[in-house]
Amino acid sequence: MLNQWIKRVFGGRKAKPAKVEPAPIENLADRRARIAAGLRVIARDQHSISRKQISQNALRVLYKLRDAGFHAYLVGGAVRDLMLGITPKDFDVATDAHPEQVKQLFRNCRLIGRRFRLAHVHFGDEIIEVATFRGSAADEDGGAEAREVVDGRILRDNVYGSIEEDAIRRDFTVNALYYAIEDFSVRDYVGAVADIDARLLRLIGDPTERYREDPVRMLRACRLAAKLNFTVEATAARAMHDQAALILNAAPARLFDECLKLFMSGHGLRSYQQLTEHGMFNVLFPELAEQVAAHAGARQMVEAALNATDQRVLDGRPVTPAYLFAAMFWPWLVEARKRLPPAQAPDATRIAGERVLDKQVRRIALPKRYSVPMAEIWALQDRLEASRKKRAGKLASHPKFRAAYDFLCLRAEFEPGLKDQVHYWQQVFQQQDQRGQADGSDPDAPEAESPEVEATEVPDGSPKKKRRRRRRKPKTAPSPAP
């Protein structure tokens, strides 16, 4: 009885935890065999890709690698876009030739990259990027020292392998299609064709692990979903929400490059919507996201600026990040300006603009060739709103005047009180055009082009100021503007 009471109060002997056997490690040969077993070959008569759609320079690289005894395939986004009926912007090649071997074949080749060793074959303005098949085991060519992983992030990966391993090392299934020059077939190891048919963006492997390897994949997911009008697969979407903060581990300069691809490629508005939907916009632009969430006018202005940029890209007109980011960050600047003490009111726009840029560049590196024009566009808003007739001509000669004026027009769509100023400056333009016709000058000279035309750059990267031609005053006064 006593023993039973002790067992009931204090419990019996604790059972030993069950021994968990480690999962067997798949050897390299078995891994390749498993991947190869899932291969689907789409014959030439079952897909729409033609060599006529492929860059002649890319074909030259493919044929030369083949003739040298290597395996070479057109790969990635080019094959994906051709399958979707989209004209690719660039063409990439994957091969079993190592970078040094590629360089020996092409005199016009340069080896680049430390994180991923690549060969760039130059044909004038076109560059064909050639990458060696990536492996997934450190015991392959290159050894363990060729791969460097810190906290799950891949910092360097020059382990080479087979086409099967290369396929599963890619980020999304739709980017893992290989066009074979031998028989013009398309090789699919990961179900990419089925995902294209379903318009689904799926990560290869575990999304959480793949995002941790390279957090920028989350931005690429949003960009591709926007560009292709695809839906991000549910597991990948949930992992993006959970891992969103990891994006700040990426280098600010790299994040800026990704933002250019997101917002300046003709699908900026949809990219913004994808970033917002998946929780990425709040991480990249927290202060702006706060204003967008609190004020409908702020959201409408951001969307209007992105939509206008998309339209310019569609029309084949030039665009620059300075104007777009100046418009996007304006609601944040307005809120920062409200928080300044009254003593700083005369210089409030400049001070608030500096604080906005100082905070944002800590997350996304805005180069000075863009941040300086942004500050100028903001500073000119006060002068445009309070300009006097006597100073109108001097202000209109400012290099960033047209950009600032277009920005004023954008603001007037959401701030009705600015419509009178917009009308006033329209009259100034009409008078300038009449003067130009009177003295024979061209009113459409390059310096009067759209604000989104970038300044010419000198070798050190700083904007080069354009000389402005002085216009002679007409002998007779121009007729008043209607």
From TrEMBL:
InterPro entries: NT_sf, PolA_pol_head_dom, PolA_pol_I, PolyA_pol_arg_C_dom, PolyA_RNA-bd, tRNA_ntf/polyA_polymerase_I. Pfam families: PolyA_pol (PF01743), PolyA_pol_arg_C (PF12626), PolyA_pol_RNAbd (PF12627). Residues 229-290 form the tRNA nucleotidyltransferase/poly(A) polymerase RNA and SrmB- binding domain. Keywords: ATP-binding, mRNA processing, Nucleotide-binding, Nucleotidyltransferase, RNA-binding, Transcription, Transferase. Residues 431-482 are annotated as: Disordered. Residues 441-457 have a biased composition (Acidic residues). The keyword Zinc-finger does not apply. The active site is at D90, D92, D171. One of its GO terms (molecular function) is poly(A) RNA polymerase activity. It catalyses: RNA(n) + ATP = RNA(n)-3'-adenine ribonucleotide + diphosphate. One of its GO terms (biological process) is mRNA processing. Gene3D superfamilies: Beta Polymerase, domain 2, cca-adding enzyme, domain 2. Residues 72-202 form the Poly A polymerase head domain. Its EC number is 2.7.7.19. The keyword Iron does not apply. Residues 345-472 form the Polymerase A arginine-rich C-terminal domain. Belongs to the tRNA nucleotidyltransferase/poly(A) polymerase family. Adds poly(A) tail to the 3' end of many RNAs, which usually targets these RNAs for decay. Plays a significant role in the global control of gene expression, through influencing the rate of transcript degradation, and in the general RNA quality control. NCBIfam families: pcnB. This is Poly(A) polymerase I. The gene is pcnB.
